[in-house]
Amino acid sequence: MTTTIMAREAASTPQVIAKQLQSNQAQCERLGEEIRKFNPAFVYIIGRGSSDHAGVFGKYLIETELGVPVCAAAPSVTGLFGKKLKLSNALVLCISQSGRSPDILTQAKAARESGAICVALVNDTSSPLAELADVVLPLQAGEEKAVAATKSYLATLSALLQLVAHWAQNEEFQQALTKLPEQLQQAVEAPAQLTQEFISPLRHCVVLGRSFGYAISREIALKLKEVCGIQAESFSSAEFLHGPVTLVANKLGVIDIDLNDESAKAHRDQIREIASRGAILSQICPVGTDLHPRTAPLTVLQRFYLDIENIAVAMGRDPDSPVGLNKVTQTV
Fold first, then answer.
1. pLDDT digits (tens, 9 = 90+) for 293-308
2. Superfamily for 5-178?
């Protein structure tokens, strides 16, 4: 039985995303057409925390499906250094749960003034960010009470998936999205993948993935820090071999994100190399049937959120009140 707010909200995600995909269908069709007419030279993504991690997923998604280069904003460039960027040929995606952080608002305002198309993927449609944007794509996640974001993060990924599927006019991709809520529910009901026995002894660990696996590794590492107090860092499995791999000689704990996509062979070869050097491995992988390679990572996160909440409770921690964190973080 789910008892914490985090667990209840994470478990509600399949219903949240089912509603979102239906409610945003017409909006994504219109937005896809508008973006094709605008024909952006590049995509510029603005976000902080989990929203920034969603932007990394968006980068892989847009570049692999559409061939349009994507870069992440450095909010301090505008907010602290006062520099205006040349974004007149850009599609700007502003990602925020609350839509209220001052640095995100500053970036969005500057993007609009530069002539970019500014799209807000935001949960609070009455927020200042929603008012600033040219187009609002609602996350439709409802109020998120847990400090550690779960359903809003997954709703951001599904919104990006639906937007890109219509922008690319990819009917197979669009059809795959209709199966996503059921697949997420299968992940909710699936057995745990991460265990307390693996997590509890850790003081440090790394989370390794490749491509889309790396994208979600950033969110997984963040939740290990927030909810369990573990110093966790995410790496591309390829990048990890360029120096940090020396750490595994000390029996470093490694969470392996194993996705069955185009990067699978390269990633698995690298994981075997890391294991041969003494790493202590725990593998997490997609859950569900008939998975599309672009939607499969969401099932990994769906299962992970429930696992890490359960582990935190077993460790005597309160996942609803991570030490030192607030629901809305104000940065400039």
1. 999 999 999 999 999 9
2. Glucose-6-phosphate isomerase like protein; domain 1 (3.40.50.10490)
